[in-house]
Amino acid sequence: MDEDYTLLPRSxxxxxxxxxxxxxxxDCMEPFIKAGALVWIDGHDAPEETQPGLFYYRGRVLCRQWxxxxxxxxxxxxxxxxxxxxxxxxxxADKAACLCLGRVILDxxxxxxxxx
Length: 116
Description:
The chain is mainly β. Helices cover about 5% and strands about 30% of the residues. A seven-stranded antiparallel beta sheet has the order 1-2-7-3-4-5-6. A hairpin with a 5-residue loop joins strand 4 and strand 5. The longest helix has 5 residues, at about 90-95. The radius of gyration is 14 Å and the shape is globular.
């Protein structure tokens, strides 16, 4: 969470429940969210399982789909199967160190990644 940000005045095209937005700098969420796109975040609402959220983990802000398996492992997943190497599986202290910053506001639900 650095200081490189710009405050935007609220406008009619912003979702009413948006608390912040950011520009994605990679293609981890393609084809649903393109690299370079602005995503709106509802910081008061956690994403449903398998839906995208914004997560802070070890100094990085990540836009990922998430799920938790039967062992309690938290999986942060890229929608783009070509970026499967960017997925994270967190347990114990690593899981506790992961902070959900909110839900990505989309007009539809995303399917679970096909490779998971």
